[in-house]
Write a structure and sequence with these properties.
The complex is a heterodimer.
Chain A: H1 2-11, H2 31-45, H3 56-59, H4 62-75
Helix pairs in contact in A: 1-2
Chain B: H1 6-21, H2 27-41, H3 47-77, H4 84-132, H5 149-165, H6 174-182, H7 184-187, H8 195-202, H9 210-243, H10 251-281, H11 299-305, H12 308-323, H13 326-364, H14 368-397, H15 404-426, H16 430-441, H17 461-481, H18 486-491, H19 495-512
Helix pairs in contact in B: 1-2, 2-6, 3-4, 3-5, 3-6, 4-5, 9-10, 9-17, 9-19, 10-15, 10-16, 12-13, 13-14, 14-15
Classes of the chains: A mainly alpha, B mainly alpha.
């Protein structure tokens, strides 16, 4: 989780990602951020986030995103 | 059948009457029949295209779903006998089958769209190259464009991709799916709807509710006001100015692009108001397509508020798949190692965006001016992205710059930028657009703004007064809309106020609509896309 928070904080240093639950709905993360995140996460966690996984529910919070990463790691 | 024709009003009135007289379980069948009649009236031959798209997508979606179900059943039955690698290999094998159905169907349906919409564009470009070698031109085919093909193809293709991704169950009934593809209020200019959202109310039975019907009709009335009072009035001046670049340039070009931008807003949002209003009167909920787009403070924000259904379609079905593809991930790694962390991180985003904006441009029309329009949007968005740290530093140094004055400046700046970009819609010849834009910067004819020359553009003083009042009303409604539904706000008012508002609006459309002897309602701008 710390690695993920580090990636997110690099993207938006002014946001407290441990508490925010509506990152997509509140337009904190836009489509450009998501694409950057996918590449960063791919590098850091060695998983591939495919287009079908890019839904608000998976990106609305750091917790949800981390759950997605774990799910992908389990599938790999 | 134009939304602004008497025939359409009669068609809608008869449909509403029959719809609420029918037993609820048959209502969607009436909508299907009405949609097919509406489509046939637009050109009987075109029904073949929409049927081909509907049937192919419906069948491919069922096959994809059947394959996914078969995969689950097989894995369940062999969960103890197959090891991890065996399961993975089986999944990959089945996925390849599903992908073949998806790819085949996409090639067919996007191929139909490509052939009917882009063949002449391709031939014209080939002819341009042949001309360099003094070879004779190939004849253009002049294929007629089936009604709404860009919209219904995208709607159907989006559904198929959702089924492939497993986020949408396939629809078993062909007639029900055909209704989703051909639902007549949407078929001409969208919004490009998602099956999951639209089907919730499209097939459900709806008991008659006077309030729902009234709210739908109110929304339609507001759409007719925008279309008939504003768009179809201002179009006279737009046509005169943009019809002769030699006579009308300089300050005229600025007037022309601002007027066209007002026309485009009134025309497209008015048309969508009619679409959403009629659907609402039928009990069908259609997603919103605009959120006060001209109040945007940046181009990026504008594209979150304008033609939302198209933008989200390109984001979900082009931008994300391209940017998350294996090829793009490889490119991301390559660009990081080659150009360093900062540049390498942004390059894949920019390349993916380029693909999206090229596609968005060519979706709007088979012509280079639309492609240039798309790529200019892309370039401005990417430059803004690069300048983001600079803006952040500026705002950190000048915290007061976020006030009302700054916001108004940002809104005005964005509006002017949109006016400039919209000019690329107007001329197939990009040179004409560049000439018009350049002429504003060197203009010496600013006197036309006050010397009466604007009264020579097919609009009288009364027309300008009506336009000024109507634009002020649209602005007021947009401002009120920030506090929630304007119709809901009006509904809370006393009966006398509501009566004055709605009958007043009805009279305004009746008296101020751009009719007259020989009146021919203009085609909606987005119909041609």
């Amino acid at each position: 989780m710390d690695e993920l928070l580090h990636i997110l904080n690099e993207l938006h240093p002014d946001i407290d990602f441990t508490t925010r639950e509506h990152l997509i709905d509140d337009i904190i993360l836009d489509s450009f951020d998501i694409v950057t995140l996918i590449a960063e996460i791919g590098e850091e966690f060695d998983v591939t986030i495919t287009a079908d996984k890019i839904v608000p529910a998976n990106f609305n919070s750091a917790k949800a995103l981390y759950a997605l990463i774990q799910e992908l790691q389990d599938e790999a | 059948m134009l939304f602004t024709s008497y025939g359409f009003l009669g068609f809608a009135a008869v449909l509403l009457l029959l719809y609420y007289l029918l037993p609820k379980r048959h209502q969607w069948k009436l909508l299907l029949a009405a949609s097919l009649v509406f489509y046939l009236l637009g050109g009987a031959w075109a029904i073949v295209y929409i049927l081909a798209t509907a049937v192919s997508v419906w069948y491919a979606a069922l096959r994809i779903q059947a394959n996914a179900a078969q995969q689950s059943a097989y894995l369940q039955a062999h969960k103890d006998t197959l090891d991890r690698e065996g399961k993975k290999a089986y999944r990959a094998q089945q996925k390849r089958i599903r992908r073949r159905w998806l790819t085949g169907c996409l090639l067919l349906d996007l191929g139909i769209l490509a052939v009917v919409k882009y063949t002449d564009f391709a031939i014209a470009n080939v002819n341009a190259v042949l001309g360099l070698f003094s070879k004779g031109p190939l004849p253009l085919l002049h294929i007629l464009l089936p009604l709404g093909i860009s919209f219904y193809t995208f709607q159907a293709v989006g559904y198929l991709i959702d089924v492939y991704r497993g986020s949408q169950p396939a629809e078993r009934s062909l007639p029900r799916f055909l209704l989703f593809v051909s639902f007549f209020p949407l078929v001409i200019q969208g919004p490009i709807s998602r099956f999951g959202q639209l089907s919730e109310t499209l097939y459900a039975g709806h008991p008659y509710d006077g309030g729902t019907v009234a709210r739908g009709l109110q929304r339609m009335l507001w759409g007719y006001f925008k279309k008939l009072v504003v768009a179809d009035r201002i179009v006279s001046a737009v046509t005169v100015i943009l019809g002769d670049v030699n006579a009308y340039h300089g300050a005229y070009a600025l007037v022309g692009m601002v007027f066209y931008t007002v026309q485009l807003y009134a025309d497209f949002t008015g048309g969508i108001d009619i679409t959403i209003g009629l659907s609402e009167a039928l009990g069908v909920t259609v997603q919103e397509n605009f959120i006060r787009p001209y109040f945007s403070k940046s181009l990026k924000e504008y594209w979150r508020r304008w033609h939302i259904s198209m933008c989200s379609w390109f984001r979900d079905y082009v931008f994300y798949p391209v940017s998350s593809s294996k090829a793009m991930q490889r490119f991301a790694r390559f660009s990081r190692s080659r150009f360093g962390e900062a540049v390498g991180r942004r390059l894949p985003v920019y390349v993916s965006s380029f693909v999206v904006w090229f596609a968005t441009g060519i979706w709007h029309g088979a012509s280079w001016n639309f492609i240039v329009w798309g790529l200019l949007n892309w370039a401005i968005l990417m430059i803004s992205e690069e300048l983001e740290p600079l803006y952040a530093r500026f705002h950190a140094k000048h915290p007061g710059a976020g006030g009302l004055g700054w916001r108004l400046f940002a809104v005005g700046r964005t509006f002017l930028l949109i006016c400039c970009l919209n000019l690329f819609d107007c001329f197939a010849n990009i040179g004409d657009t560049l000439f018009m834009l350049g002429s504003v910067l060197t203009a010496r004819n600013w006197g036309i703004l006050w010397n009466g020359a604007l009264l020579e553009l097919g609009l009288t003083g009364v027309d300008y007064a009506v336009l000024a009042g109507a634009v002020a009303l649209m602005l007021t409604v947009s401002l009120l809309g920030r506090r929630g539904s304007v119709r809901a706000q009006i509904a809370k008012r006393p009966y006398a106020v509501r009566f004055i508002v709605w009958y007043g609006l009805f009279l305004l459309v009746l008296l101020m609509g751009a009719y007259g002897i020989g009146y021919d309602a203009s085609q909606f701008i987005y119909n041609r896309f």
